[in-house]
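Our collaborator T.R. sent over the components below with a one-line note: 'Predict the complex.' Nothing else. No constraints on interfaces, no templates requested, no preferences about which chain binds where. So this is a plain run: every listed entity goes in together, and whatever single assembly comes back becomes the starting point for the next discussion.
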Amino acid sequence: MTGQSRSPAAASAVLLAALAVALLLSLLSGSVPLAAGDVLHALAGQGDPSVVTIVRDLRLPRALLAALVGGALALSGAALQALLQNPLADPFLLGVSGGAACGTLVGSLLGLGAAGLFGRAALPLAAFLGALAAVLLVGVGASVRGRLDRGRLLLSGVVVNALASAVLLFLLSWGDGARTQGFVFWMLGSLAGATGEAVLTLAVYAALGLAALLPLAPAFDALSLGEETAFTLGVPVETVKRNAYLAASLLAAAAVSVSGIIGFVGLLVPHGVRLVVRSHRALLLLSFAGGAVLLVLADTAARSLFAPAEVSVGAVTALLGAPAFLLLMRRRA
Amino acid sequence: MRLSEVSAGYGARDVLRDVTLSLSPGSVVALLGENGAGKTTLLKVLAGLLQARTGSVTLGGRPLEAVPRREAARRIGYLPQGFEPLFPMRALDAVLLGRMPRRARFAAPGPLDVAAARRALEELDAAQHAEADLREMSGGERQRVLLARVLAGEPEAMLLDEPTASLDPRHRLVVLTALRRRAAAGATVLLSTHELEFAAGADRAVLLAGGRVLAEGAVKETLTAPLLSELFGVAARVFPLPDGTPLISLGRPVE
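Returned assembly:
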């Protein structure tokens, strides 16, 4: 990494520009291709009313939701990697996403999420409870004499993930056919349900997550020298780890509650960002931006590749993410 | 810093038994003993990483647990044994972390911090590695950078777990010189080591056997043939050099 330029400011500028381009691209593409000029007019509420509807009511909420979900997942992954000191930590692999999906499904079956803004805000909380249950189970499985054993953590995550999938399948077989199909599509990762309300809800949770994690950035820096060193540098290690785990779970849960299980974003984006930044403050912020760009592009691809049919965006991220991750691993070796 | 009648360990097992020890400012103290004798445990108890089961640990007369963590972090520097970084990290950034307890909680490192970090790297002949990634250095280079992290914090007490484990002879001397300089300026340095010639360059030594203090005192009085033979179970011969430093030669294991 020596000799490589590492300017967080330049990287931020590039990522913000990329986000703007990705969002615009996402508004242009889909089953009805639109011209850039028409899209900009439609955003201002001018021109063909059907185009205005497509842009403002369908594509814009979806693009913004993709950005927020991608940002939340990548931020969650960056925080989990920092607090567990494990480069393979990610909300999906640690069972957080699976638990959140169970929570969301239980919440939906109980009738949450249907009624207005309150229901909207309640669904992420149901997901959060599910995620916490998964975190506790993973913790129990990975604890050795009261301490979290890093080696067992991912193993424990895999087991809890399998359990969550089983619970999801059981819950799904309860519902009627049409509803089940919708849930399955959501579970595989889809942003098709995007609404302005969902965007607002997730924006609030993402802001909460960022506000909780950013102050922990110096502690994360110290943790990268090991927990003992961090403790002797005055970092309240256990408190930091607990708060970071809660914030990371909340972020992932809120994302899952609106978009199902989307893998690889939380794992891959922080790795990419680490190539250009050093401090955790920059890592957290740029991971959020990078995750947003990645998921907006992935969702645009999911909508346009086989339009008017849609691919699950989870399949797109896995298809892009798995090879990219293997490449990164080889570079590191 | 002072330990009195401290017993400590992991799980149900006591590794340290009834250890009483005073560390006075201004000296480099070598901690010697076989594997498992309790050297690391002793350092961890002093650093506050491990609670003593019985007995007390004090810092400047106050019980260590009553000293606020940030103040303790400012006053005590700790270097754990052989750390392998998992994520990319620039050497200078690692050293700057040593200044963390000295600046406001969310403040970025200032010019004073950077100056202290660079000075510490220079003292340990590691200034040329300042921009390098910790993961791409040799073990000895990384060891010096991590030790520079402790020096940069300018603590009153330095607890160093095998700070010279992977260093070549010249850099071992560089480290000893830097630590003696800090001690001369009033710091207390306690370091564990298996290198007797390095220990002979310290002011004092603590000999730890089976979790108990076998001997403690000036190097000339503790690094003696009978004590070293007893400590390591090998035949030891000690020749005083003209300046009084003991020259130690170890022979075959004692039956």
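Summary for T.R.: Chain B touches chain A at residues 11, 44, 47-49, 69-70, 72-74, 76-78, 80, 83, 85-90, 93-94, 97-98, 100-101, 105-106, 131-133, 136, 146, 149, 153 (CB under 8 Å).
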